[in-house]
Amino acid sequence: MTGDTLYSIRMRATTKGRHVSGAEKIVAPDRIDATVSGLIARARNREKSPGEITITIESLAGEQVKFVKALDLVTINALGWEEGRACAVRVLCRAGVSEKAVEAALGHLSRGAAASGGSMRGAMIMDAQTGERLEPDQERGVRASRFDWSNETGEIIGRALGVVGLLHFRTKEALALATKVVHGPGIVAELCWSDDPDYTAGYVASLQTGYVRFPFLKKKNDGHGGRAIFIDRNNTKLEKIVSYLQTDTVLINSGGECRPETDVETYLAALVRV
Ligand code: COA
Ligand code: AMP
Predict the structure, then answer these.
(1) 13-37: per-residue pLDDT in tens?
(2) Which of 241, 230, 238 is nearest to 206 (CA)?
(3) 131/3 Cα distance (integer angstroms)
């Protein structure tokens, strides 16, 4: 299907040049007005009077739309950031990332992965075996964009997340972003924790493991965070992966399971080996 009747609506807000919030939707024309209002409210929710709010409304006419199913979600009950990271290493290794590459990613994200030492504006792209960084610009990184829940699936997943106590809007957005990322060509897995000092949760995502959430992947008040996307360069060109992440349109039109919290041993034992 092409996106002839769809629009990509993207919001970003800055204060004194600093990025404070961003979100995006894909909607039919009759939902543009309500969606824009919602995104403006969202920008003002994060900071009451941001210096600048930019809204982009772009027709997706002629663009191919890829439909995918959301990843299953589970929370691992690791109670501190050190235990959380140790569990995340095990899950990433199960997804096919080498221990060397995982350790490299943890080091970059803990220290500040941008070339200048702070947080990047997007994700690192890393070779899943060697840990080599491949993103063309180490200050910017690569941002996943042009993805959303279809109306009905968004509502279903919102309720399912609520049942397992995950009511924060970030979880639903991060699950959508991770679902787009792992359905890309040559992508092995993703690791993320936020650079928001108050938000300690993070996740590992891959097609094999689903979306595995950890309540703590960093200490409270730690402003270092970011994303690492691990890729297999053997069969897919980097340019194709970057182009998929940044511009291909992905709609999530079928929900995954939202499972109750569990421990890492139980979770790993139940994973089907491939
Ligand atoms: N951090 C810092 N700066 C950012 C940024 C971020 N996360 N996102 C955008 N910017 C700034 C940068 O200066 C960027 O310029 P650059 O390309 O040189 O980095 C500029 O805004 C334009 O960014 P662009 O992505 O072209 O803007 P857009 O309006 O098309 O889309 C977003 C903006 C934020 C909606 C999009 O980039 C995005 O991240 N979408 C996913 C949002 C989401 O669901 N996140 C889930 C988080 S859990
Ligand atoms: P957030 O989840 O918004 O707290 O973002 C955490 C980190 O992920 C940021 O510091 C960026 O490094 C990175 N990031 C932000 N937006 C994107 C995106 N759209 N795609 C990939 N990485 C992103």
Answers:
(1) 999 999 999 999 999 999 999 999 9
(2) 230
(3) 36
